[in-house]
Amino acid sequence: MKYCLLTCVLLLVACSEELRSTTPTYQVRHQAFNIEIPAFGELEASKAQFINAPGRRPMTIDWMAEENSLVKEGQVVARFDGEKLTLDSRKEELEMLLLDEDIHSKTAEKYEQQNALQSDKVFISKEYEFVDAFAIDDLRLYSKLEIIETLSNRDYLGAKDEFIDWKKDSIGERIQSSVDVLDIRKKGHSAKYEQHKSALAKLEVIAPFDGMLVYQKNWRGEKPSVGQTVYPEQCDCQNT
Questions:
Q1: How many structural domains comprise the chain?
Q2: Range of the domain at 121
Q3: Which of the listed residues 2, 101, 168, 187 has the most CB atoms within 10 Å of its CB?
Q4: Do the beta carbons of residue 216 and residue 235 sit within 8 Å?
Q5: Interval 204-229: pLDDT, tens
Q6: Could you give the strand order of the β-sheet that contains 59-64, starting from the edge strand earlier in sequence?
Q7: Going along 86-233, which residue ranges are E strands?
Q8: 151 vs 125, 131, 140, 144, 163, CA distance in Å?
């Protein structure tokens, strides 16, 4: 009887251990929860603003912010090289200064020649006074040669006076035409100078709002890089 009872107890214990070892269990603990979906390609933002190259001339990229980085509104995301723009701006400024000198020189030349002609007019008026002072009142008192000489002098002085007036106008028109041409050339250099100044003021590209910076591929599938030359209105990056 004793042996039978002991055998039953051993069998029960063995069965209990077998049941415990075959029951599936899962230990719950606090850990990060991620869902990963494998995919290939590029994400496209539902809201994005393209940022074009500024200015009106090709510009070289000097620095760029890291792509796919988060940027804040007003943050500099790219910077262009301004060395060539500065040199071109100074060149146009020098051309304008040289043209100013030419304009002043032409204007001084006009006044100088006109003043010289005015002096000739004063001299002619004095000669007129001299001829009038010794005018012939009674033609019977002088020979025909003296009368002809006196009248010829008056005609010569009158013609000379008219010629001086014409020459003054001619000099004024000729030199003024030269000044107008120089002024047109100066305006052309001035327009280029203002363009360079405007471009120098736009060397930095600013993020329009908070977001992620993404660079746009060109038609060859290449993204912009430092040292690359980009053209006006060319889209280089977008703020998403």
A1: 2
A2: 87-202
A3: 168
A4: yes
A5: 888 888 888 888 887 888 888 888 88
A6: 204-206, 76-80, 59-64, 229-230
A7: 204-206, 211-215, 229-230
A8: 16, 9, 15, 11, 18
pLDDT in tens, 110-128: 888 888 888 877 777 776 6
Paired tokens of 187: 């305006």
Is residue 181 assigned to a domain? yes
Q: How far is CA 219 from the centre of its chain?
A: 26
Residue with tokens 């002085």: 157
Number of H helices, E strands in the chain: 3, 8
143 occurs within a structural domain: yes
- Residue with structure tokens 């060109």? 218
113 exposure class (CB count in 10 Å sphere: 0-12, 13-18, 19+): middle
What is the residue type of 116? A
